[in-house]
Amino acid sequence: MIVHVLGCSGSIAAGCRTTAFLLDDDVLVDAGTGVGDLPLDALARIDHILVSHSHLDHILSIGLLADSVMRERRRLGRGPISVHALPETIAALRAHIFNGVIWPDFTRLPSADQPALALLPIAVGEVLTLGGKRIEVLSASHTVPAVGFAAADGTDGGWWVFTGDTGPNPALWRRLTDMKVTHLVIETAFGNDERQIARISGHLCPAALRHELAQLGGSADVYITHIKPGEMDAVMTEIGRLATPHRVHALAAGDRIRVGAAAGVQAYA
């Protein structure tokens, strides 16, 4: 399985894209601004979107994607894109995005019987099989109902885990104890100088990250995501001072993480 990092920034600026990961070519994990860098034919191959929570930086490309590929998918005879999210997240999308005011309701367009999008509820602990990939819904602790995801390709090469936006989350580490985690994508949205903001907003800072990683067994490749534009060097310097057995990397848009037999990470210009 190849994880293509389309976006991993906490906000936007030149060269910064918000959260979106493409698993192989058919499953999208979150739909931030990085989705727009894909060509139209690649967009049309996306069959599933897994949504971690309802905040704008994670969902804003869902409606635009639907509008872009609706005609091409209809021409190819492909059905609606399945959007998998917590019931609370689906309710937020219906009320605040696909309401005919902010954006048209693509769960009923181009027609009610052949829509561009299908909104499907998920729950923590549920295991999905999408495009040959096994995906488990993980708990997250944020200011709105939220989840993370673990994905594997069935080769026993380990799990790619995305925490989603989360503050300290003991339930996550209890679950990961029983999983072979080879790649962990974990957020660190703020530096230690803003640890109070991190705590209030349900995010991590390097000091909190140290406590979280201490609960992860073994030795994994850890990728830091959701750093704010302009803060990369400062946050990664603080993280570099942490004592951890794990290999810690700064994630960048364009990276491709190979999960399975040929595991590793490669940066693409």
Automatic annotation (TrEMBL):
Domain Metallo-beta-lactamase: 17-203
GO annotation terms (biological process): cAMP catabolic process; negative regulation of glucose mediated signaling pathway
Pfam assignment, any one: Lactamase_B_2
SUPFAM superfamilies in the cross-refs: Metallo-hydrolase/oxidoreductase
TM ranges: none
MF-aspect GO terms: 3',5'-cyclic-AMP phosphodiesterase activity; 3',5'-cyclic-GMP phosphodiesterase activity
Designated name of the protein: 3',5'-cyclic-nucleotide phosphodiesterase
Species name: Piscinibacter koreensis
